[in-house]
């Protein structure tokens, strides 16, 4: 480089601010990606299709990425009642601005596992209210409200890197308390939370395996199912080896 030539300055680009989108525009984007065959297949997975368009999840996520976080849009999408619009809420609502009351309102509206899990795993577990909602919702009577507690706990086990092991140890107490709930979507979420906590760290793995063994030896059929389901996953060589390397 010649002595008189100065290195080019790196110019930082301003952050791209998404253009505001209203609910009708967002719904139009969803309708453009709708596939009748996808809609017809939802019922096979226990998802009501009477308010569905038939948009695959990958397309919903792509639309959410295009729109960006636009908190004002989320309530209108939810109130549309359209299944895919409600899924889209998980990707356009701002978790840092979401109120506990709004989380409760949406949780009460859950009517299928996919909606419950998507909001819990992509939105609710990033809010400042997440841990409190795990405890509160674990005592709810509704099947999908109670599932939300454990889907949220599973999401926290994966995404909350700062939470101490003690918080998850408390979560395991909730898992044990709910392990006898025979409802299909509750017991599967309880197992999911137990497996997710057990894969977080070595110490939590040992505690989770011990709980799974107790449940697997229970006289209650649902507890046995949860325990055996979790043990199959937690004792896989791949899981044990991965934890040992951390």
Compile the SSE list and pairings.
Blueprint: H1 23-32, H2 36-41, H3 57-67, H4 73-79, H5 83-92, H6 100-109, H7 113-122, H8 130-137, H9 143-159, H10 165-178, H11 184-198, H12 202-216, H13 221-234, H14 237-245
Structure description:
- By secondary structure, this protein is mainly alpha-helical.
- The chain has helices at residues 23-32, 36-41, 57-67, 73-79, 83-92, 100-109, 113-122, 130-137, 143-159, 165-178, 184-198, 202-216, 221-234, 237-245.
- The protein has 2 domains: 20-93, no CATH class; 116-246, Serine Threonine Protein Phosphatase 5, Tetratricopeptide repeat (Alpha Horseshoe), CATH 1.25.40.
- Helix 7 (113-122) packs parallel to helix 9 (143-159) and helix 11 runs parallel beside helix 13 (221-234).
- The longest helix has 17 residues, at 143-159.
- The model is unreliable at 1-12 (pLDDT under 50).
Describe this structure in a few short sentences.
This protein has 246 residues and is mainly α. 63% of the residues lie in helices and 0% in strands. Helix 11 runs antiparallel to helix 12, helix 11 runs parallel beside helix 13 and helix 12 runs antiparallel to helix 13.
**Major sheet characteristics:** none
Proportion of strand residues: under 5%
CATH topology of the largest domain: Serine Threonine Protein Phosphatase 5, Tetratricopeptide repeat
Number of helices: 14
| Overall radius of gyration | 21 Å
Per CATH, the class of the largest domain reads Mainly Alpha
Distance between the termini: 46 Å
Please describe the structure with a list of short key phrases separated by commas or semicolons.
246 residues, mainly alpha, Serine Threonine Protein Phosphatase 5, Tetratricopeptide repeat, 14 helices, 63% helix, 0% strand, disordered N terminus
């Amino acid at each position: 480089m010649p002595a008189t030539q100065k290195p080019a300055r790196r110019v930082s680009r301003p952050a791209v601010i998404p253009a505001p989108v209203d609910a009708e525009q967002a719904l139009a984007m969803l309708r453009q990606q709708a596939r009748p065959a996808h809609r017809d297949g939802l019922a096979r997975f226990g998802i009501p299709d009477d308010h569905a368009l038939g948009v695959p999840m990958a397309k919903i996520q792509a639309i959410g990425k295009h729109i960006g976080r636009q908190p004002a849009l989320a309530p209108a999408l939810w109130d549309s009642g359209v299944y895919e619009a409600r899924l889209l809420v998980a990707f356009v609502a701002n978790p840092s601005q979401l109120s506990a009351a709004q989380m409760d309102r949406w949780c009460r509206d859950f009517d299928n596992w996919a909606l419950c899990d998507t909001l819990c795993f992509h939105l609710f577990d990033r809010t400042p209210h997440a841990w409190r909602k795990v405890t509160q919702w674990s005592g709810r009577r509704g099947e999908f409200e109670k599932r939300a507690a454990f889907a949220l706990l599973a999401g926290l086990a994966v995404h909350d890197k700062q939470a101490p092991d003690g918080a998850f140890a408390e979560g395991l107490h909730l898992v044990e308390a709910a392990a006898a709930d025979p409802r299909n979507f509750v017991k599967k979420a309880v197992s999911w939370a137990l497996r997710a906590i057990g894969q977080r760290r070595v110490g939590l793995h040992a505690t989770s395996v011990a709980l799974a063994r107790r449940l697997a030896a229970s006289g209650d059929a649902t507890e046995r199912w949860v325990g055996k389901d979790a043990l199959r996953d937690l004792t896989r060589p791949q899981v044990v080896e991965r934890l040992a390397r951390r």
